[in-house]
Amino acid sequence: MATTLDPNDRAIVNYDEPPVKPPPMLAVGPLAWVRENLFKSTFDTVLTIVSAVVLVSAVIGLLQWSIGSANWFVVTGNLRLFLAGTFPADALWRLEWALRIAVFLGGFTLLAYVRVGPALVVLIGVMLLLLFAVPVVTDATIPPVTTYLAVGSTPIVSGTVTEIPQDELAFVAKAGETVRVQIANLGGSDDALSHAAGFTDRASAALINAVNNRLQTQQEMLNLQEQLDHGLLTDAQRADFRGEVSTTDVPPALTETYSVNTTSVQVTLINGTTGETLDSATLTADSAPLTVTLPDDGWYVLQKTIDGDGTALLETTGIYPLHVRNLTRDGVQIEQYERMIDGFNTEAPRAAIDGSTVPIIQVTDNQYQGLRSFGDYLRMFVAPFFRDLGMPFLQLVIAGVLGYYAAFGLARVLPAVPGAPRNLGLRVRGAVTWLWLLYLIALFLLAYGVQGLSALGVGLLLSRFVWVGWMYFTGMNLDRVWGRPLLGLVTILGVAQSVIAEGLLDKLSRDPASAIGAILGVVIWLAIGLYAARMGRGARGGWTDSLRLRAVIGSAVVWLILFIVPPLLIQSTTQNVLPLTDTRRWGGFLLTALLTIVAILASFPLGVLLALGRRSSLPVVKWTCIVYIELVRGVPLITVLFMAQLLVPLVNPSLAEVDNVIRAMIGLTLFSAAYLAENVRGGLQSIPGGQEEAGKALGLSSWQVTLHITLPQALRAVIPALVGQAIALFKDTSLVSLVGLIDLLGESNTVIAQPEYIGLRSETYVFIGVIYFVVSYLMAWISRRIEASGSGAARRV
Amino acid sequence: MATAEAPISEEQNSAILEPIIVCRNVNKWFGEFHVLRDISVDIMPREVVVIIGPSGSGKSTFIRCINRLEEHQEGDIIVDDMVLSHDIRNIAAIRREIGMVFQQFNLFPHLTVLQNISLAPINVRHQPKDQAEAKARELLNRVGIPEQADKYPGQLSGGQQQRVAIARALAMEPKIMLFDEPTSALDPEMIKEVLDVMQELAQSGMTMICVTHEMGFAREVADRVLFFDQGRIVEQGTPEHFFENPEHPRTQLFLSQIL
Q1: Cα dist from A287 to A268, A283, A375, B59, B178, whole Å
Q2: How far is B116 from chain A (nearest CA, A)?
Q3: Amino acid A794: pLDDT
Q4: What does the pLDDT look like over A290-309, one tens digit per residue?
Q5: What is the C-alpha to C-alpha distance for residues A473 and A487, in angstroms, rounded to an integer?
Q6: What percent of chain A stands above pLDDT 70?
Q7: Quick check: A625 pLDDT over 70?
Q8: Residue B167: its H or E element
Q9: Of B99, B112, B133, the CB nearest to A419
Q10: In chain B, which residues have their Cβ closer than 8 Å to the Cβ of A419?
Q11: From CA A744, how far away is CA A736, in angstroms rounded?
């Protein structure tokens, strides 16, 4: 075939049809991806291998630590502290409902913004399955965690510690649980003993420690000998090593020293409350274990004595270390005994035999010993944690599903969005924003409380909001014959309701001067209602006639129910439903979340105003904003917080009465606003000048241009930066723990200062790290969804 | 005040009507650079004026002075009996009378086509939303793209975007329309659809000032052609005069280069 044009030809026409072939193996599919992304060049290959090694070893190390030796009781036992601090127990329901409503709204939002695919459903299904199945499967298949108890009369020496095994031991157990006692089948050799893994009493802990020390010394000596025999050593080193070998002597095997498990043991199980003997047995190394199913919740005592000399090591299940808590309830000191392993507790007085209290094993000095097996990990941490989490998670899933279908139902009745008639999500997007704003206010009120709000008041308040909606829908029907009379009627009803709610008549009759606030309240509500009606009039397009009618009737019914029904129940509804909580008792994640939410919400308008002010042509405004922004950006956050906590009250003592939490919120807000202003200013600068010109040419005022044209585009352009800032702020709130507020980080520090959790920093910090990560990631994910949604076409111009 | 609403004959037109735009010795500087030099021109209602000239001659600046997107430093501009000065009320009133179409369209990318058009009537003229939207759909019909109402500007072709921009300006019911090189940023295939709309507008009696390089449009639609060079009006006349017997050498040179 000719590829150049022959002088005699005028054109080349190609009628051949080359066959369609599949691409070569290495050009498509996973293999191509691996080649393209991981092993493209020598450098890439080295990088891939090195990072894979680092990653894998890090993950393996973390898993080994997490499963084998981490003590997660510090997390599972303090979950409430981490989540809500010392928030009053009788008000915790408010937080629970806040969470449920949040998830309900989450489900609502899901319909508006996300196409719910099978992946999410499967994910939630798998999580539910795991939460409910893992505890059941674990209980059925994995034996309970072992506790080792020493028996005998010989003191056991380990280093400087000397422990004598106890003859009696009290423990707490649930009805129906089984206690099993047998001679440990690893008593035969030191090596086997060193592999014991489980809870221990003090004496058996001493024995196992001694064994481990001996084995370690033995190993060190072997290593030194090996060096002396084969290593390349200087004379000085050789002399050094020789000296060490000759002065150290490895003790004889401890199993022999203490004659471990050579004689039989008498064990008796006694009901600690009634004192009756449940069962007893003589155990030898190969006898069947003593197994007793317990009749009641409460105290039990295990008596154990050895026949003759020597020491025995018992392997038991159903007997676990206890955590002793001193509580004050209604002014009375109470001792509570809690089983660490599952939180089962009793407040019954400690078991006593013949008038003397029986010793117990406490968690403080009897943590899990040895390298934990995966089974024990599941038994001790995963299964109990999942069991606690299962029901709340199920409730939340139900709330989310309800929210999703509520949005679905609402979308079905709302008019279609022009241009996308089949997209249900688009129809409820406007509602989503308003609902979340209302929610955040409600969240704050739920946490903080409202003074003097009775159930009656709640009904009255809610019904006034419904009245605003009613006015809106009435406004939609203004073009009908009955539109105007209806609007008049609804307005009168609303005013009458406001008069009742504000107690206007009562106040007028007592003291007209005090009624000014109430009159103002009535007027404000009236204004809001009339404005809603006007908005409704403008928004009637797109709503069908019957829909408009139904909206009016529906809101009227809801209004009546909320307004009329609570007074009928007045006897039971006068007491305060949301008493104020003490902000000093806000803590943990609750405090972190509230600080973040308030700071973000409050700094947003402030930051936008500062950004606009900095671009203002008025020098005074401009320079005020510049000075504020640069001043705040030049100061570390911790300084701002210290100022809010310490300096402000010095400057003006009356400010010392403001709660610390509120002052921290103000400090965070002022700080965050300066950064937000710079982000927004960046967005404003990115908008081409033609936009403003076009707006002006249309006759819009500068404020209208900003509000309708430049600001919306600028904010959309900087969503990633704003969310980045929100995430940074969320993490920065941890600094408040330095000024005396007990947020998530502060709560961790409080927890690990308790004696039974001393030294458990890693576990605690890993846990709060996971919380910080999950929330931050969620925020980033939401921001990506927002960027991808809405008038995404905006960015294509 | 003169209105262009009722159909009036040509004779009556010139006899009764005052000029709708009066420029007297308008001067403007960008820093030291003297960009408009003693521009004096009257524009009558219903007149279609096309401004032609080499780039940098000040023609865009001149029409941007008319609705105060640029500020002139000397001379008077009087639009519909209102003197363009620093008085912000006058500026707002004049901008309500004047629609403008830009070379780069300058549509609002975050609003749908319908919202783009109805934004100003709702916020400046305080029209109810449904009325403004009905009007917007009518205008979209007029510029020939009724089906694009609910799309975003980014989803439209350049020609469609410019027609939306024209509809957006018309929604304010202006007496005067300014066109700042409306077809310069368009692909050749799309220029005609925009020019057709402008021609229809001219025939409906709108007062128009167009800066353009479309000589065919100037010849066919313009009542008067102004030729700008170095900040002054070098020559003006009917299209016949301008294209067939240009007198000034600069005009002749310009026309010889582009035709």
Answers
A1: 15, 6, 25, 110, 106
A2: 10
A3: 41
A4: 999 998 888 999 999 888 88
A5: 10
A6: 95
A7: yes
A8: helix B158-170
A9: B112
A10: 112, 149-151
A11: 10
